Structure prediction request, 143 residues.
Amino acid sequence: MRIALEEAQKAWSKGEVPVGAVIVDEQGQIVARGFNQSLSLHDPSAHAEIVALRAAGRQKGNYRLPGMTLYVTLEPCPMCLGAMVQARIKRLVYGAADPKGGAVSSIMKFPFEKMNHRLEIESGLLEQECAEILQNFFRERRG
Prediction:
């Protein structure tokens, strides 16, 4: 998660909402990294998770990423969770809850029980640090 926080810092330095993601394999080796790039790429789908999933797919030569764990600093939205299901990510670990957009347990509970693939989910890892980077970013933006 600390590496995902480094990715979030990269997003902030580019004026993007500071969310970072990292995908690791079963041996704990980093396969891909990503940070929010929706503004700079003019792409509403360029969330940190999607950027990392795309990079991992290219690196592995496959859109399926079984056995992988995705770490992300903020609770994923429905789009990102859907992409994780399609990629067959094994495990999701996120830091801070997203009360305005999170689809794991905040604004909705993603319907994993109806899906053909279910993720293992862990929340709250480095929650304080993950929340603080977002709070500080928005505090600075409001000026």
Q: What stands out?
A: The longest helix spans residues 127-142. The mean pLDDT is 96.
